[in-house]
Amino acid sequence: MDDPVIELSNVSFSYDGVPVVQNASFTVAQKEFLAIIGPNGGGKSTLVKLMLGLLKPDAGRIRVLGKRPKKVSHCFGYVPQDVSINRSFPISVLDVVLMGRLRRHKGVRIRQQDYEAACHFLELLGVAQYKERRIDDLSGGQRERVFIARALTTDPDILILDEPTASVDTAGRTELYALLRDLNRTKTIIVVSHDLMVMSSYVTAVACVNQQVYYHDKNEITNEMLDMGYQCPVELIAHGQPHRILKTHEEGP
Ligand SMILES: Nc1ncnc2c1ncn2[C@@H]1O[C@H](COP(=O)(O)OP(=O)(O)OP(=O)(O)O)[C@@H](O)[C@H]1O
C-alpha cells in the first residue's frame, strides 16, 4: 500500500489556552476524497490550517508526504473559507488566478506559460468569460470557482477547499463535485463543510470534527458522528438529486 499523504498523530491545538483540536490521529491516503464535517466552531478550519502548516500543534505530530507541512507547502492547493476581497482594489479575475503562479523568491514576472495555465483553469472552472472583469463584480459562486482555479494553477497533489459550496446553488454544487471527482483521479481532495447536505457521493472518507476527530474511511455518516453533534436527517447529493443516506432517528419521548 502507498504511504499516506497526510498523517496526524495525537495532535492537539488551542487558541489562547482554549482547546479546539484534541488528540487527533488519522491518516489521509493517496487520492482519497475526504470530507471534513462537523458543527460550527467544531474546529474544521483549524484542523485544515494545522495540516497546511499555517498553525503549529501544541502537541502531537503532523507529516505531509513524510515531511513537516511547511516543507511541502508547494504540494497544496488551498481555497480558504470566505476569501476576503478589498472592494476598492481593482484586480481582475485573470490577475487573481495569476497570483497562484507567483513563485516564492522569484519576483512577479508573469511568463507566457503562467497566462496559459491561468486561462486553462479558468476555462476548466467555467469562468473564462469573466477573466477581464473585476473580481468584485462576480457573484459568490462565480468567485468561488475563480479561487479554485487559482488553487489549481500550480498543479498541486493535494487540494483543500474550505466550505466551497457555501454560495453555490444546488446545480452548481453538483457540477462542482463532478469536477472534484475528475480532479480526484490524480489528486487527493479534502473538502470542509459544516453542511451535511452538500456531502457528495464521490467522497471516500469522512472526518467528523467537534474538538475530537472521528475518522471513517467510508462514504457514510455513522452514529458516532451524529453523537458528536448532529441532528438527523442527513442527505447526500448524488447525480443532482439529494437523497437520504441515514434514517431519521426515532423521535425522543
Ligand atoms: N484566530 C483565532 N483565535 C481565537 N479563537 C479562534 C481563532 N480561530 C478560530 N477560533 C475559535 O476556534 C473554534 C474553532 O474554529 P474553526 O474556525 O476551526 O471552526 P469550524 O469548525 O471551521 O467552524 P465553522 O463551521 O463555523 O466554519 C471556534 O470556537 C472559534 O471561535
TrEMBL record:
**From the Swiss-Prot or TrEMBL record, what is one GO molecular function term?**
ATP binding
Q: Does the keyword Cell membrane apply?
A: no
Task: Show the Gene3D superfamilies listed in the entry.
Answer: P-loop containing nucleotide triphosphate hydrolases (3.40.50.300)
- Looking at the record, the residues that make up the ABC transporter domain are 6-236
Query: Per the record's keyword annotation, is Transmembrane helix included, yes or no?
Result: no
- What EC number(s) does the entry state? 3.6.3.-
Q: At the top level of its lineage, which domain of life is listed?
A: Bacteria
The cross-references to InterPro entries, in alphabetical order and at most eight, read:
AAA+_ATPase (IPR003593), ABC_transporter-like_ATP-bd (IPR003439), Metal_Ion_Import_ABC (IPR050153), P-loop_NTPase (IPR027417)
The alphabetical list of record keywords is: ATP-binding, Hydrolase, Nucleotide-binding, Transport
Which EC class does it fall in?
A: hydrolase
- Which family does the similarity line name? Belongs to the ABC transporter superfamily.
- Protein name as annotated: Zinc transport system ATP-binding protein
Q: What is the lineage of its organism?
A: Bacteria, Pseudomonadati, Thermodesulfobacteriota, Desulfobacteria, Desulfobacterales
